[in-house]
Amino acid sequence: MNNPKNLFIATFIIIISTYLYIFGEEKTMQIIFQEYLYLIALFLVCIAFLFFKFKLNKYEIVEFIPTNNFSLKSTILFFIIFELIDYNSKDGFKGMISQWFIYWVFGVFALVLTHTLNYYKNYKILQKMK
Asked: Mind telling me which residue stretches traverse the membrane in this protein (predicted)?
């Protein structure tokens, strides 16, 4: 699973499955819908990403912002630190795992945003060359 897209899909399935098992359908939907502003922002960034990707599909993309500079070890370490903080501040295990979805949204948001910024910089360079 070296591809971040596959990793995000797998983790999304695991998070939703865990939520459904522990919280049930109603609470799971409530947790997801509480984050609607972040989901709307993610949707808008995805639209910008697709726009630039479509515009630059025939050109070589220069990577201005490296997107794969975090190792899996450091990512897991950050996750564990946040989980310990959530466990203490969110009243135990259920409160801790209720934060997983927002972490997932932020992870996808960060990945898509860095790719969008790379495409935007490439697009600006292409515009200057024309």
From this structure: 7-24, 36-54, 61-81, 101-120
